[in-house]
Amino acid sequence: MANAEPYDLTQSEPLSGKAREVLTRRLADIVCLPSSRISPQERWIVGDLLFEVLRNSDSRERRRCARRLADIADAPAALVRMLACDAYEVAEPLLDRSAALTDFDLLEVIRAGKTDHRVAIARRETVSETIAAALAATGEAPVINALLKNPQAHLAPPTMEFIVSAAKDETAYARLVIKRLELRPRQAFRLFWWSEHKDRLALLERFGVDRTVMIEAAEDVFALAAAEVRQGQADALVTRALKFVDRRQRNRRAAERSRFGSLEGAVAAMRQSGPTSEMIEEIARLAGIARPLLARMFDDMGGEPLAVLCKATGADRDTLYAFWAGLGRPEGSDGIEQARIVYDTLSVEKAQTILRYWDWANIQGGSTG
What is the pLDDT of residue 10? Predict the structure, then answer.
């Protein structure tokens, strides 16, 4: 026996004879024994043997073994990883519930598998930040949708950034992203621009908060900053932050210098002349926001951004309608009705928070888009 040749378990074509079928089942029986019946070393050795047998067996045997191993938390790693990378009908039970699959294994499946494999991983009971990032990076809509629908998937900030950016082309993501607890204001206010009306309302409702606490906390800082300005020691960063907190939205000095006298006067003039470059510049100054932000609002075909602008600046509903007409938009369109809903829904304080955040993000060198 000492000189006996070892069994050659490699075959050019998968076989499914009776002996192989019985041997596969017996080896699987051993591998699936509880820890009280088998040592880890024995499980690993038998697992190595089963690995070779299954690698050269038909899919029926591999599928049967995968179903059994799916509930074994300490199943041999190489064996489970091989089956998880197999055809989806083989891998499915392991991808669905196997605790033996590590993040390393799942990353290999994401790389080597197909879309069905990645969707199954996205639906697992727990998805780590590392795995979620790898799944999102595939850019596959079914995978990202499954990931966003899974409340136990942990999405790191860079992953959320990636998905929010992708939502510009895959608008279906927006409604799912809005429900995620990981969504942050910067991401939400970017997402707003390529969301539908219903989703825009949800974003405004969730992230349109008042600034009472900030205003109270910074109340004495305004005097300190003003004193530094008079001394020629203005701090640009403090100025930008205080602009976000300030109760006043309109630029009073701009109104004093403007030939239109007020924001309403400029909007009335725009209704006659249209949104010329000069008019955009003037209205932006009067409203106290950056010109690129106002241009973005004018380019947006929905009326919600204009409603935010009017409510934040204290302009009345007639001014909102004048804005709409000045842009050459039809009075009876859905856009103006959607704008009216936002105008009537938002408080001045919440509208100011949203407008200030858009403007602050633009000043930071980020973009509202």
Answer: 40
